[in-house]
Every structure is written in structure tokens, then in C-alpha cells.
Amino acid sequence: MDNLIAPQRLKIGIFRALKAGINPEFPEQGTPQGGVVSPLLANIALNGIENIHQYNRSKRKRITPNTSEKEIINACIRYADDMAFFLRPEDNEKEILDKISRFLAERGLRTSEKKTKLTASTDGFDFLGWHFYVQQNGKFRCVPSEENFKAFRKKVKKIVNHSNYGAKVKAQKLAPIVRGWRNYHKFCKMDGSRFSLWHMNHRAFKVFNKETKQDRYSAEKHVKQAFPSVPYSENNHIKVKGNKSPFDRDVTYWTERNSKLYDGITSKQLKRQNHTCGYCGHKLTTEERVHLHHIDGNHVNQKTPNLMVVHESCHDYIHTSKSAS
Questions:
Q1: Largest CA distance in the chain
Q2: For residue range 17-73, what is the model confidence (pLDDT) as tens digits?
Q3: Which residues are paired to 310 by β-bridges?
Q4: Which of 306, 277, 300, 272 minimizes the C-alpha distance to 289?
Q5: How many CB atoms lie within 10 A of CB 40?
Q6: What b/e readout covers 181-191, taking b as 16+ CB neighbours within 10 angstroms?
Q7: For helices 198-210 and 146-160, what crossing angle results, to 10°?
Q8: Which residue stretches of the chain are H helix?
Q9: Which terminus of the chain has a lower count of CB atoms within 10 Å, N or C?
């Protein structure tokens, strides 16, 4: 609990939930898989397991008490209770696994033998819907995993083949699913023919075109609406520094980091305004979305003097006051 970065009220609530224990009437019942509190409890219980396997950036040096944090690399990635450890040829996997088992035993946990496996980097592994692997030339690659792609294709197929929906309704239902899937994988290698979704596009076009009220041109229009394109950039994700948390009140760090998540024009304007709202003058935090306001009302005019980054609420207030006047 001491290492948990959260408001005091939230920490008290979590502490009370952990101290409450279990219901004696249902001793075998635990936190439901996929429940809201499950990832939170996993993060609290497994906090610090990343430090089990570390090594120095310099291959010839070992980690000593005098080694700075910049020189230490945590050879582990973790999301809730899913984690992956990266081993070098000289590392002993049994020794590391024993350390993990001891760490978990102190917290009343144990590793799953079915899910725990050792694999070569060239063979790769699946993690959070992605497949990571290293090519023979040493280049790192990341693509959507086989299971993730099959689940996505199943969702699309179910909507496309639904007999109760027309082409217009199908396009409206497909658009958020396709956009969400592409956004989730936008930092993967998505230039292959498989991930271009050409076959799904072609299948949807054939189904839409068969409808009596549709022709070739309207079917093409609905397909474009159903499969919106999302720009991707391989391995261009933004890492979070160290133990940073949205609850640590470091407004400057989080506003600067989130500015990189917006497009080029909005990101540049955020830097010009020093990450402050152009209307109210307050800092742009993570709690509210950022909007790009055109001062003269002309959205075609993208010149710098005509642009201003504002809070979403401030943007609504600006247009509300204009319409009222």
C-alpha cells in the first residue's frame, strides 16, 4: 500500500477491501475473471516483480548498490497479471523462475504451469493480443496475434452476414469495431495484405451490392464508411517513464506526453501554448479531451494565427456563446 500512487480516499477504500477478506459462505469464490477490481488487485499484489530480473545497460558491468537508475534495465514487461521476462543467453531460466515463485509465494500466489513457457525470441510469443518476435537479421517485429485476428474477423463476419440489417446499418455497426481494432494495433506492422482487410472489404462489398436498394457506387460508399483507415507507425509507441501515474499530480509531464497522442497540428499548437488552454488559461490535463478551435470559424484555414487549443468544455462554451449572441 505504501508504493500505491493514488488519492488517499482511494487508498483507504482499497485497504478496507483487502482487509475485509472473503465471505465464509463462499470460501472458494474469488475475484471474477475480467472483473473491474481484478486488474487493480493484481497490480497491487505484483508490484515490484519487475525488479526480479534486471541487468546493466553495459553488458560488461553488473548491478551494484551504486548503479544509477538510468543504467538499470528491467527485463520484464507486465500488464496486471500477464508478464513476460526477457533472458540473455547467459541467464539461468530456472533461477529466475525460482525467484518469481518465491515472490508469489509470499503473497499467497503461484505460477500457472500451463501458461508459463520458455520460447526463443525468433519464434516469438503472444502478449495482450500482439505477437512479438525477432527476425533472423535482428530486427524486432510486432503484429496482431492469430487469436486476436480470428476474434476480430468473427465479429466482422457476424455483422456482414446478418440478415436483419441493411447495408447502411451494417456500415454504422462495423465502423467503430474496425476503427477500434486498427487503433489498438496502430503501432504494429500492418502493411501486409492480411492486415489491410482487403478480403473483408471485398466480401462486404459483394453482400452490400446484392441488396435491391443498393448499386455499385452506394455499396462502395458504405464499404468505405464501414472500414475507416487509421494511420499506423510501427514501434512508434510512447513509453511511460518509471513509476509515473496519472494520480501523481505531475500535470506538466502528463500534458506533454498526451500532446504526442494528438495529430501534428494539434501537437504543435499545444507546444506553442505551453500546454495551456487558449481560452481559460488553465493547464490541459488528462481528465478532459483537447479540441482544436478555429478562431474565424473557417475549418479550411489551418494557419497558425487562426488556431487555438482549448478544453472540450471551453470549446462548447465558445460556440454556445456565439450562437446565443
A1: 75
A2: 767 665 555 555 555 556 667 777 777 778 888 788 877 666 556 666 666 666 667
A3: 291
A4: 277
A5: 17
A6: bbebbebbbbe
A7: 10
A8: 8-20, 38-45, 93-105, 146-160, 167-184, 198-210, 216-226, 251-259, 264-272, 312-324
A9: C
**Contact call for residues 50 and 76 (beta carbons, < 8 A):** yes
With the CA atoms of 71, 72, 75 and 76 taken in that order, what torsion angle do they form, in degrees rounded to the nearest 10?
-130
Cβ contact 67:74 at 8 Å: no
Contact between residue 55 and residue 88 where contact means Cβ atoms under 8 Å apart: yes
Q: Go through the chain and tell me how many residues it has.
A: 325
**Cα–Cα distance measured from residue 279 to residue 281, given in angstroms and rounded to the nearest whole number:** 6
Instruction: Please state, in angstroms and rounded to a whole number, the distance separating the CA atoms of residues 27 and 45.
Output: 20
Q: Helix, strand or coil for residue 157? A: helix
Contact 318, 279 (CB under 8 A): yes
- State the cell numbers at 71: 543504467
Q: CA torsion sign, 256 to 261 to 262 to 267? A: positive
For residues 114 and 150, what is the distance between their CA atoms, to the nearest angstrom? 22
pLDDT tens per residue, range 66-93: 666 666 677 788 887 788 888 888 888 8
3-class DSSP state of 143 = strand
H/E run at residue 126:
strand 125-127
